[in-house]
Design a protein that fits this description.
Layout: H1 4-11, E1 15-19, H2 25-37, E2 42-44, H3 55-65, E3 70-75, E4 78-83, E5 93-96, H4 105-123, E6 138-140, E7 146-148, H5 156-169
Parallel strand pairs: 1-2, 1-3
Antiparallel strand pairs: 3-4, 4-5, 6-7
Helix pairs in contact: 2-4
């Protein structure tokens, strides 16, 4: 039997995330969030060569070690998603990270998207791409309330007119 960590990893079906020396655990956290939104567990895996700074090699090693055959590698400002049956140099997806700020919203989005796609790969669902529209977030209205993005509310006069018309059409008997 091998060491406890490797045995524990093999027993727990999960997407494995391998980090290069320049990648922080906060990026793996966003991969984990994306995977868990899809209902698939995800964990950081330290079985790959820690000095390896090739995200493709890290992702391939993680996919080979994962019981569900899906791995993510983060290094050199890139995030690679790999499936165990794919050739080592042909990842399922490869994304560039923003080199200016390690914790930028772009990097969080890419890592979360990668985790989501890793979960979708496990569940055999269509993958999401960067150009998919982000979920609508509430925006502030002039009255101080919130409404979903993209929804415009009529002004007070128009709203009163619409309500009046609806009341006239209503049969009160």
């Amino acid at each position: 039997m091998s060491d406890g960590h490797r045995w524990e990893t093999r027993e727990c079906p999960a997407i494995l995330v391998s980090l290069g020396p320049d990648a922080g655990p906060h990026l793996a956290h966003w991969v984990q969030i994306g995977a868990e939104e899809e209902g698939v567990p995800c964990q950081i895996w330290s079985g790959a060569e820690q000095s390896n700074d090739d995200p493709l090699a890290l992702a391939h090693a993680a996919a080979q070690a994962s019981r569900i055959g899906v791995g993510v590698g983060i290094a050199q400002g890139r995030v690679a998603l790999q499936e165990a049956h794919m050739p080592p140099n042909r990842p399922v997806m490869l994304w560039e990270l923003d080199g200016h700020s390690p914790d930028s919203s772009h990097n969080r989005h890419i890592c979360r998207l990668t985790g989501s796609n890793a979960g979708r790969l496990v569940k055999r669902m269509p993958l999401r791409f960067d150009d998919d529209p982000p979920p609508a977030r509430p925006i502030k209205t002039q009255a101080g309330g919130e409404q979903p993005a993209g929804l415009s509310l009529p002004d007070a006069d128009t709203l009163a007119r619409l309500i009046g018309q609806a009341l006239k059409r209503r049969d009160w008997s």
